Amino acid sequence: MSLTIDVWFDYLCPFSVMTGKVIDDTGLAQDHAVRWRPYELHPEGIPASGKKDYPQGVWENSVVPMAARLGVPFGKAPAGPLPRTHLAMYGHAFAWRNGAGHAYDTAVFDAYFHHDQNIADLDTLAALAADTGLDPWHFRAWTDSPEAAAHHQATQDQARRTHRIHTVPTLVIGSWRTEGVPDAARLRRAVSTLHARSRVPA
């Protein structure tokens, strides 16, 4: 019986990128469903008195070393203020419904972390969508619609109230849960244990 690995992420979170690498390295996606679920860390935007970019010390001393150990290429921290990611997440729903979810997510992460593109801008997102084979007109129509906003709000409410998500990345597999970048060996053990339990007759 295949398990579902739910991963809550945000496009501005480098640890979400690393989590994707860990999952890829384990090979678990070959036998189990991995469901990427967007969770906006700053739904109200960054307050004027709050953090507007990545603290350089944290980026250099935490993000870059961990990424290097995992084989994830990260250079300097993205320039400029932290973006809102709700529009990119509207696009995530469209992309996954149209068979280009993984390619779109990868493109948005790369645009932000490697090319200093503004992923809060609809024109930028539509161009990324087109690069992944999606129809940019239909992508834009969905992303700019009230239906997309309502869908996104519903997913955020469900994440907070039903799944108690408050940070990313968060992984949930059945009764097992972890926050932060998972250890590959621990993740494999959890999946193996849960998979074995699912095969035991009630």
TrEMBL record:
Domain DSBA-like thioredoxin: 4-188
SUPFAM superfamilies tied to this protein: Thioredoxin-like
GO MF terms held by the record: oxidoreductase activity
Transmembrane segment boundaries: none
Pfam families with a match to the protein in the record: DSBA
Coiled-coil parts of chain: none
Protein name in UniProt: DSBA-like thioredoxin domain-containing protein
